[in-house]
Design a protein that fits this description.
4-stranded antiparallel sheet, 5-stranded mixed sheet, alpha+beta, 444 residues, 16 helices
Length: 444
């Protein structure tokens, strides 16, 4: 085979064979094909697309480029969850212990954040002593003993994806449904879970701004799962306003504790109940989503979910006293309360602006290698549709730099708009995608 012939074939709109895709990925991983040829191939895919079989073949080729996690020695159906990312998206911190408490093993490899806030691993590392870099043996031991294990993604998991992503980032080929879908699913499949629930965010604060595009992405990922023997379904959730109230690393740990204690913001709790219910269905613990929601809600109320979170922290070396004493988490030296300039109804909370300014406060990274301020972030005190009085607090800013507070205050004030007309809060769950396709607003 020649790379040039494969590039030409895709450029002209033809379907590539599994052998051709495997050859390209293997040869590129072994540095037998230069970046400029793979860049041309990526652009051909961007312009011509890939069908489901091609996308599945690309996914498996990237899985096979590195090591995979073997979880066959762990009893039960192992379920993983992946979010495409958003603002105040604290779902993993709540879902993993909640679903584990229900008896479904949750095996998760997570990454560090590049953008609004840190990733799940950064958030967990705001817990003193927490070890987020487990060996495969430690990972499996934690999973066997506690039904939950979360570790940082190692470089030998789907390494070809990392190389391709670096090229996509500089060749204007990021926004390709087949390339996005195969990138996400290659890491999920390599991580060893039997079944996968996807949380596809849609809206201003998400990568996918348009519902139709988000549906296409969800359908592509679900189809990949079907073709490679990993049952997968996706929940499409609204990200026009932040999901939770906390935007920042240690702040989100505190909010996760609140939700696991049966409190916390209703939006985050409801999203976790929906996603968790589907995880229980796929894990074989319940037969339908309403039953799953009832089971999980009981675990929040009776303290079992919080107890599982405590066990999880302890098992991975963290200071479990933060559950009762959140002040043991990193605390910002500087804070500022933003109040409403008028009375009225909250019309919009622009998630993208909230997230971007949380990053400017220090909660996220503008580029790889940046140091995160684990105490920095934003705590919102209102939701779209709420009525607020004049001078009522609407947000609190946290940072270890007074200059950063000064720089972001005005933007945050502009990101929360207040008017005279009452508005209806936006729907949280927009629909689901499973093997039967897209179904709008199925969860009540």
């Amino acid at each position: 085979m020649r790379a040039l012939d494969i590039i030409t074939k895709k450029r002209d709109g033809y379907t590539l064979t599994d052998q051709e895709i495997n050859y390209l990925i293997r040869a590129y991983q072994q540095e037998e094909i230069p970046d400029y040829q793979i860049s041309a191939w990526l652009m051909a895919i961007f312009l011509r697309g890939m069908n489901s079989e091609e996308t599945a073949a690309l996914t498996l080729a990237m899985v096979q480029s590195g090591n995979t996690v073997d979880l066959t020695g762990v009893s039960g159906i192992k379920v993983d969850k992946h979010s495409t990312g958003g603002v105040a998206d604290t779902t993993t911190l709540v879902l993993a212990p909640l679903v584990a408490a229900a008896g479904v093993p949750v095996a998760k490899m997570s990454g560090r954040g590049l953008g609004f806030t840190g990733g799940t691993i950064d958030k967990l590392e705001s817990i003193p002593g927490f070890c987020a870099t487990l060996t495969q043996k430690q990972f499996i031991t934690c999973l066997r003993q506690h039904n939950i294990a979360i570790t940082g993604q190692s470089g030998d998991i789907a390494p070809a994806d990392g190389k391709l992503y670096a090229l996509r980032d500089v060749t204007a080929t990021i926004e390709s449904i087949p390339l996005i879908a195969s990138s996400i699913m290659s890491k999920k499949i390599a991580a060893g879970a039997d079944k996968i629930v996807l949380d596809v965010k849609v809206g201003r604060g998400a990568f996918m701004k348009d519902l139709n595009q988000a549906i296409l992405l969800a359908e592509a990922m679900v189809k990949i799962g079907e073709l490679v023997g990993r049952e997968t379904m996706a929940v499409l959730t609204n990200m026009d306003q932040p999901l939770g109230q906390a935007v920042g690393n240690s702040l989100e740990i505190q909010e996760a504790i609140d939700v696991l204690s049966g409190n916390g913001p209703a939006s985050l709790r409801d999203a976790c109940l929906v996603l968790g219910s589907y995880m229980l269905v796929l894990g074989g613990k319940v037969t339908d989503v309403p039953t799953g929601k009832a089971v999980l809600n009981e675990l929040l109320q009776n303290g079992q979910a919080l107890l599982k979170f405590t066990d999880f922290i302890t098992a991975q070396g963290g200071d479990a006293q933060i559950v009762q004493q959140p002040s043991r988490l990193p605390q910002a030296k500087c804070n500022r309360v933003i109040t409403s300039s008028r009375a009225g109804y909250v019309q919009n909370i622009y998630a993208d602006q909230i997230g971007y300014n949380a990053m400017l406060l220090g909660a996220g990274r503008e580029k790889k290698g940046d140091t995160i301020d684990l105490a920095a972030g934003i705590m919102l005190h209102c939701r779209i549709g709420d009525y607020v009085d004049k001078s009522q607090p609407i947000a609190s800013l946290y940072s270890n730099s007074m200059e950063k507070l000064d720089r972001t205050q005005h933007v945050i004030e502009m990101a929360i708009t207040i008017g005279d007309e009452a508005v209806k809060p936006p729907a949280l769950v927009l629909g689901i995608v499973d093997r039967n396709g897209y179904q709008a607003n199925t969860f009540k």
